[in-house]
Amino acid sequence: MTELPKKASVFLTMALHDLELLESNPYYRIDMEKFCNPDVENNICSICLTGAVMANQFDLDKNNNYLPTDDLFGVWKEPLMCLEDVRLGSFDILIDVFEPNLDNTDKKIIVTELEQFYDKHQEQLLDGLKLSNYDDPEMFKKMMKSVVSSLVC
Fold first, then answer.
1. Which of 70, 80, 113, 71 has its CA nearest to residue 8?
2. Where are the beta strands (DSSP E) in the chain?
3. Domain range enclosing 12
């Protein structure tokens, strides 16, 4: 297991790397509605962005379902839950977790800017399609990389 990154941008970059790595593994199927759900009979496991981090960073039993709130994830629990929020265009928890000493005014400014950036680029990149559902994997990754590049933390 890698040490938990201290910066939001590094954490999101790691998550995208984990997703891309597991995309090419025939055992994994990307499904943004499932965290980490194996189908033992068919020898596949459905994972989302969060599930990709859980599967790649932890030694998971391939027969079990996992949620980011499971105790085995320890200090990773909150950051893992952030990924689900970021995927859906919400950045409050991400800033709370990675910038806990930021005052509320600065936090609100950063979160508002990120959400506006996300909304604007989602419309431009996907022509109104929802980024969060992974219908277009390359667009999803492009948008997430754009979010990473816009982060100051």
1. 80
2. 28-30, 36-39, 44-47
3. 8-150
